[in-house]
Amino acid sequence: MPHLAKSFLDAGARRAARARRARYLLVAAAFVALGSVAALFAWREREADRQRARAEQAQRAEALGRAVALHQGAWFAFESGSPHAARAQLRSSLELADSIQGRATWWHLEREPLLWRRAMPGCLILGNLPSVATSEDGRVVAVACGTTLRILTADAPARSARIVRVGGANELAAVAVSRDGQTIAASGEPGAVYRVPASGEDAELVHDLHDGIVFALAFSPDGDLLATAGQDDSIHVWSLSKGRLVTSLPEPSTPTHAVSFGREGRVLAAAGQSGVVRVFDLEQGGDPVLIRDCSHPSFSADGTRLVAHCFELSGAIRHFFKAFEATNWREVASVPSKWGMALNAGSKGRTLDVLWGDGAVGTLDFSTGRAHRQPVASRHGGAKTRWAAWSATGLIAAVDSEADVSLWRRSEPPASVPGASTPLPA
To answer: Is 0.90 surpassed by the pTM of this model?
Structure first.
């Protein structure tokens, strides 16, 4: 537009200089008028461009200010023990204004093992601690908290827990989550077992076949079968899709505290106070396989191995972690250790996640006999981890002695650092 205006004005000036008649003067005046109009439009366009530039600059300054505030808020949230909130604020900050500092902070937060933490002081009822379970991908965490079930997700702030009341006025004793995270099972003191959708809808009674506390719950890999066991020495397997009892297994004449499905739900391992792991073939039936002087059975995700906490009673009690082939039940690995409260077999049974009696959480490698301590720590100085559950994607859900529930990333021992793993204590 400025070039066009200049052309019209120059043409008008030349014609006015050469004009000898009035009509030529009129033509020159017309060119000058066109040039003036073009110059006016050019000026207005330049002003509009300047206004747009000033508005964009103001928007960038405002976005930068908000990004800086979010970045500072992310650090504050991280220092306050809320890494999930820190990640959310930093993600918003980077969307507003990308920066080297923001990316460096994100890199740091992405390596922070703690994903979120939730304080649940109301769960410390009569000194009992809530039990916790997680889905295979770790996205759903369920906590049995008094008479209610708390449902949390790995990709949402801990404050968004859904609360579902289960049963009557009795405390929940056990909780389990199906592998796909769609269904949660919980049991209360009267012996009733309930099913709760992960969406947080009302609890539905599955059965009340037990007489007394139900200590153990386990889903089959496909989520259809639910094994329940407890104080009354009975073990029941229930089909959720058909809504009926599949089988009641022979009573071990002692309370059962742990059950685990293997071989795609075709076998079930159970153990209790008797110190004997019983492995039942749910398809063929018959007498169970007995693995003596062991407890806390856990099948690997592929069902090829069974791991358990075992002990010897000759003289002083000696504790071991052992692995057995799931076909002939032959012992294939044994590592001395101290007492373990909760176990989780690795994908092929070559590693074992352990919660030891002193509250330490670690991963044991059967091939080397060494353990790597996992980054699970309490925000309370004297609090210890009292219950833990593991996902197949490397997440650890933990409850400490102050009823804090937290979700962590499982870490691997750095192979390049000597002494990254330490021998298991005898």
So the answer is: no
